[in-house]
Specification:
By secondary structure, the chain is of the alpha/beta class. The protein has two domains: about 90 residues, Glucose Oxidase, domain 1, CATH 3.50.30; about 240 residues, Aldolase class I (TIM Barrel), CATH 3.20.20.70. The longest helix has 17 residues.
Length: about 400
């Protein structure tokens, strides 16, 4: 698991303005074209070049030599993965660095806000009420610094639509500065029950945008209970319909836990009959962190115990012409019939394997585990003991 933020040690005359500053990392040995947002990473014998706003070192003696007249930060080894083109934020006193974007990773998402109008019983990042509007300002500052070859970026929360107009500002900024980059928005969908709000997003005409919306049941009271919000089911479904009617792509997300799996088969039939126009349906293993950990005793079910229902749900949707996928699960738990729907989905920075996987020959084909899922995992993990056994299973 990668550490995305770490305490750091500033040296020299560190006088960054109040708040946080955003920098694009550069290992070049020439003067930067945009010094204000450029940080030179001094590794592999690279020497400092005048013109950068910030210098980053892992070697204390090199940092000390630079400290005269320059803003220098000594980084810990936990951030040694930082590289050319990555974007970081630096606290105004230089003691905290956060990796905001990694150019070499396919898993880049921007946390827009930690506020939310749901209180999901298994939420992996419980909402907060603090004023975190500065996060959007950082994102808007960072977007022009991102590599234009980036395949996709995410917008997530909390609930991103709660930032109002700035939600549309972010999408528009991404369209302008990242014309070839897809955008995936994670939203509970309720704001889109307002047709005018949905129309504003559609009118931006982003070439590759999808909104991922959780729908946890075909039965409204169960969905409302899971998200802890009365009326949420009706608003969410209206939001899905509005977006699709306006040409915006929509993905349904269904988190698998003890409450929701009771309706897996009926949920699939409901979607096949009423919402088959959505672009994707993702069945997602639960992350046991946040409220997922707090409520673990009520939520946890061994994936082995719902696998036949998951198999039936995926086959129902696929037969009807839908596009189901299985996320956040392990290869050895899959029935062979689910392999066409199985995806590696856990972000690289929080993807790990448990000791039971050490001797498994199927690891390269397996999505693994959330690093946070140490509280519970299946009792039915069964390593593949030879390359041949993996090949036979995958054929």
């Amino acid at each position: 698991m990668l550490t995305l933020s770490s305490r750091t040690r500033p040296l020299g005359g560190f006088d960054s303005p109040p708040g946080t500053a955003v920098f694009r990392i550069n290992r070049a040995t020439r003067k930067p074209s945009n010094g204000k947002h450029s940080a030179q990473l001094l590794v592999d014998g690279i020497t400092a070049v005048d013109g950068y706003a910030l210098y980053l070192c892992f070697d204390e003696s090199a940092a000390a030599r630079l400290a005269q007249g320059k803003q220098v930060i000594l980084l810990p080894e936990s951030l040694s993965y930082l590289s050319d083109g990555d974007v970081i934020t630096v606290g105004n006193d230089g003691t905290l660095v956060r990796a905001m974007y990694r150019r070499g990773s396919p898993n880049n998402s921007f946390l827009v806000t930690e506020r939310c109008n749901h209180l999901c019983v298994m939420c992996s990042q419980p909402p907060r009420t603090d004023d975190d509007s500065f996060l959007v300002d950082e994102i808007l500052e960072a977007i022009p610094l991102l590599d234009r070859s980036t395949r996709e970026v995410g917008i997530t929360g909390g609930e991103p639509t709660l930032v109002g107009d700035k939600f549309f500002d972010m999408v528009e900024c991404m369209k302008r500065f990242l014309p070839g980059t897809g955008v995936h928005v994670l939203s509970n969908g309720r704001a889109f029950s307002d047709h005018a709000f949905s129309r504003r997003l559609a009118e931006l005409r982003h070439f590759d945008l999808m909104v991922g919306i959780p729908l946890y049941s075909d039965y409204a009271p169960l969905h409302n209970f899971v998200v802890q919000a009365e009326g949420a089911f009706d608003e969410t479904v209206r939001g899905i319909i509005n977006l699709k009617a306006l040409g915006v792509r929509v993905e349904l997300r269904f988190v698998l836990n003890r409450y929701t799996v009771t309706r897996l088969r009926s949920f699939a039939r409901f979607v096949a009959r009423n919402l088959l126009f959505v672009d994707h349906v993702a069945f997602m293993g639960m992350e046991t962190v946040g409220f997922g950990r707090t409520n673990l005793e009520d939520l946890w079910i061994d994936p082995h115990d719902y696998m036949s229902d998951l198999e039936a749900a995926c086959l129902t949707l696929a037969t009807a012409g839908g596009r189901p996928s299985v996320y956040n699960s392990q290869l050895c738990l899959m029935p062979k019939s689910l392999l066409p729907f199985y995806r590696h989905s856990i972000s690289d920075w929080k993807n790990e394997y448990v000791p039971e996987c050490e001797s498994c020959y199927g690891r390269t084909h397996c999505g693994g585990f959330f690093a946070s899922n140490q509280a519970a995992f299946s009792a039915h993990l069964e390593p593949f003991h030879s390359p041949e056994s993996v090949a036979r299973f995958l054929e």
